[in-house]
Design brief:
alpha+beta, 2 domains, 7 strands
Length: 133
């Protein structure tokens, strides 16, 4: 019985220095030094939720203007704020499947259904700075 009472005290005494060391280790760098040592990079292929701000002509090479719907984060920091302008162009078209074409013709729509493929290559920040992506 005495062994069980002392076990809790011994465990607390062993854990306390470890927690204190972890707290001191985390405070070794000031917040400004920590931000300088981190490189915030959005991983390649990360989806960007955008909304088109202008009309898009279905021609290859036509410019496309959009803006971000929600901010983009790297780790726990905001890298791109909401409403950042995104500029790109139409790179090609994806043809619809045979079934989609048949059902649209059966409904009286004889326009060939196609989906434009868009590529965004420039970000324009609020201060006017352009960043190629």
């Amino acid at each position: 019985m005495i062994f069980c009472k002392n076990l809790g005290r011994v465990a607390a005494l062993c854990i306390l220095p470890i927690c204190a060391a972890a707290a001191v280790e985390g405070q070794a760098l000031s917040p400004s030094e920590r931000s300088l040592s981190e490189h915030l990079v959005v991983p390649e292929g990360a989806p960007l939720r955008v909304i088109l701000t202008g009309k898009v002509r279905f021609k290859r090479g036509e410019p496309v203007h959009a803006r971000l719907v929600e901010p983009v984060y790297a780790f726990d920091r905001e890298v791109l704020p909401e409403n950042t302008e995104v500029i790109g162009h139409v790179t090609g078209f994806k043809s619809a499947s045979r079934w989609v074409r048949v059902t649209s013709m059966a409904g009286g729509n004889f326009t060939p259904p196609r989906e434009p493929q868009l590529t965004f290559d420039t970000l324009v920040l609020k201060d006017g700075k352009s960043i190629p992506i």
